[in-house]
């Protein structure tokens, strides 16, 4: 009887751990949205993380890959924002025609660098000239979370544990 109980418990633990493998943990970077009606998730970190995914003095940037066998890349940049000094939730809403470089800005793009001689843009928008908004909802230590919407993107979410660049 004890042998069967142990097997049942072990089986349950294995099944529960399988479900948790697909869970997105706070330190796991992801960008997801419905992009022109297609559910899209990018969650593979580039090999040179510090060049592509970091918190700088007045910006943060996330670059993620879709994963094998695709080389599709999703870039997500918020600039002119000091994430340690803003009041949450913090929203950047476009279009904002201030090109002075002083107002908060948001840029996102999905592209395939291996498609054609110059790559292929799949989707993209920036807050300067598109109806798009991004809301930073949580900054806890180096983990940033938020949502975005507009210009072909709907139900967008992102989160990433980002290293801080020391300048």
What value does the average pLDDT take?
Answer: 82
Major sheet description: 6 strands, antiparallel
Helical content (DSSP H or I, runs of 4+) = 10-25%
Q: List the strand order in the largest sheet.
A: 2-1-11-10-9-6
What is the gyration radius calculated from CA atoms? 19 Å
The H-and-E topology, N to C, reads as: HEEHEEEEEEEEE
Low-confidence stretches: 1-24
| Strand-pairing-aware structural class | mainly beta
DSSP E strands, number:
11
Shape: globular
Quaternary organisation of the protein chains: single chain
Query: How far from one another are the termini?
Result: 63 Å
β-strand percent reads 35-45%
Number of DSSP helical runs: 2
List the helices and strands and how they pair.
Layout: H1 2-21, E1 30-35, E2 38-42, H2 49-52, E3 54-55, E4 59-65, E5 73-79, E6 90-93, E7 105-112, E8 120-126, E9 132-140, E10 143-150, E11 153-161
Antiparallel strand pairs: 1-2, 1-11, 3-4, 4-5, 5-7, 6-9, 7-8, 9-10, 10-11
Characterization of this structure:
14% of the residues lie in helices and 43% in strands. 22% of the residues are buried. The longest helix is centred in the N-terminal third of the chain and has 20 residues, at 2-21. The protein has helices spanning 2-21, 49-52; strands at 30-35, 38-42, 54-55, 59-65, 73-79, 90-93, 105-112, 120-126, 132-140, 143-150, 153-161. The protein is mostly beta strands and 167 residues long. The strands form two sheets. Strands 2-1-11-10-9-6 form a six-stranded antiparallel sheet, with no helix packed on it. It is globular and about 40 Å long. It contains two helices and eleven strands. Strand 9 (132-140) and strand 10 (143-150) form a beta hairpin.
């Amino acid at each position: 009887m004890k042998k069967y109980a142990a097997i049942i418990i072990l089986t349950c633990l294995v099944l529960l751990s399988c479900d948790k493998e697909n869970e997105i943990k706070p330190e796991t970077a992801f960008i997801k949205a419905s992009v022109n009606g297609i559910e899209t998730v990018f969650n593979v970190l580039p090999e040179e993380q510090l060049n592509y995914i970091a918190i700088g003095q007045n910006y943060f940037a996330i670059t993620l890959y879709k994963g094998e066998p695709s080389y599709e890349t999703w870039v997500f940049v918020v600039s002119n924002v000091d994430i340690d000094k803003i009041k949450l939730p913090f929203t950047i809403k476009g279009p904002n025609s201030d090109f002075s470089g002083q107002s908060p800005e948001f840029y996102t793009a999905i592209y395939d660098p291996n498609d054609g001689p110059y790559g292929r843009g799949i989707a993209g928008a920036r807050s300067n000239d598109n109806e798009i908004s991004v809301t930073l909802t949580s900054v806890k230590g180096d983990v940033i979370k938020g949502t975005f919407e507009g210009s072909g993107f709907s139900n967008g979410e992102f989160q990433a544990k980002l290293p801080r660049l020391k300048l």
